[in-house]
């Protein structure tokens, strides 16, 4: 399957879920135009409380629709945007990509992956049991976070459902995504 965008979302407020829309404008160095998390410095409230001057490495949240399929098998009924992602993808193993991977979205926009979304209590407040469902443990006991990836916008552009995704891996040694 060719990697593609299946839905896009934004919200001007800090709500858990985001509103679906027909397209997003990604702004270089800022994030999603019109989204509460758009900006050069961090906008996530818990991170602002710690240090409002830290760089915003969480400008764009991408989530793989395959997670919805996995969670549906466990009894959760989720749809694109409800977990707060800006871009819902299909056909790409986002979690397996290394730090620095560039995703060319549509014809112009480029997002560089910075790390994993760290699922928090908001997920559990949204649906009981969902927090543990988006966390897993690997063979050596390491915590696996499955709630999507975060990135920064390298090149401004419009992205829409059905846009293709081209993956450009970083040169040199690859470093696994960690929570940001």
TrEMBL record:
InterPro entries: MoCF_Sase_C, MOSC_domain, Pyrv_Knase-like_insert_dom_sf
SUPFAM superfamilies the UniProt entry points to: PK beta-barrel domain-like
UniProt domain MOSC: residue ranges: 19-168
A matching Pfam family: MOSC
Gene Ontology molecular function terms on file: catalytic activity; molybdenum ion binding; pyridoxal phosphate binding
Domain of life the protein comes from: Bacteria
Protein's UniProt name: MOSC domain-containing protein
Originating species: Undibacterium parvum
